[in-house]
Amino acid sequence: MLAGALAAALPALALPVSAAAAKPLLVGGLPVTCNLTLPVACVAKAAANAADKSGAPQFEFEYSKYNGWPEVKESLMAGRIQAAYMLAPLVMDLADKRIPVKIVSLGHRSGAVIMVRSDSPYKRFKELAGKRIAIPSRFAVDFLFLRKMLALEGMTPNEVQIVEMAPPDMPAALYAKAVDAYCTGEPFGAAAQRAGYARVLRMTRDEWRNYICCVLTVREELIKENRPLVQDLVNHVLGAGVWLDVKQENRNKAVAIAAGRKYFNQDPNIIRFVMENPTDRVTYGDLRMIRAEFEELMQLSIDAGTLKSPVAYDKYMDESFARAARPTVIGI
């Protein structure tokens, strides 16, 4: 019996890496439009695999939805997932703490807004002195955006009351006057704006054109064990970015994909509002990895106190996949 069991097990133990890759790679993400390239990439990859009749092993990846950055961080740290869209400063912090993670691609450009009530008198940040402003996290680049806007008017964060809050809770909190303003990624600004009780005070598209927050991050062991899979994922993310910015019809398709229960599970009209008001509220086509932009982000994080000291670029970044990338033609 033992001999037979061992004989049966040997073929499985001898499986090549390509066969092991048949199990889908789970990629963590939040239901935010900064992560929209991920659902598009997943659907495009599944469609390409279904159309391939060669019988050759195919890489697979799937979107794994999380509701907050702490949960994504914990799953990535624990190795429950090996890839995720993450906040760039958070990845810097994890890498500095010897968590083996690397940024391999951007996910978007722009996409953050600072919202106030439509019936409020606020036009300038000076008028928000002493008021409550919600942010998703002190590691969020939204917080750095808020700090930038305060600094333009000679203010410091100490002159407002900053509270951390899950983005999905922000529109209701503003409606109930539990906060006076909030700063977050979409579609949680658009949700309140479309409902008619909030307006945009500032938008990254106008104030910080090279803004980035969500980056595709993978564990280093995945890079060592399966570089082709990581490269294929990067190619699809970059291809999704190009596809999203080519024409509005593609964005409409992306809205239908993202709104589904498997992905964001949100009202498609709200996601469409983000895609159209204005059309460059969030952009995806320029996903170049630019060292100076990350180093600016790192310095802003140090100034904000979320990073204690500089983190070496190579410690948290692997540009090799972006340099070798061939953006996939999205056929959906």
Description:
This protein has 332 residues and is α/β, with parallel strands linked by helices. The protein has 2 domains: 203 residues, Periplasmic binding protein-like II (D-Maltodextrin-Binding Protein, domain 2, 3-Layer(aba) Sandwich), CATH 3.40.190; 96 residues, D-Maltodextrin-Binding Protein, domain 2, CATH 3.40.190. It is built from 16 helices and 12 strands. The strands form 3 sheets. Strands 2-1-3-11-4 form a 5-stranded mixed β-sheet, sandwiched between helices. Strands 8-7-9-6-10 form a 5-stranded mixed β-sheet, sandwiched between helices. Helix 3 links the parallel strand 1 and strand 2. Helix 3 packs across helix 11. The protein is globular and about 65 Å long.
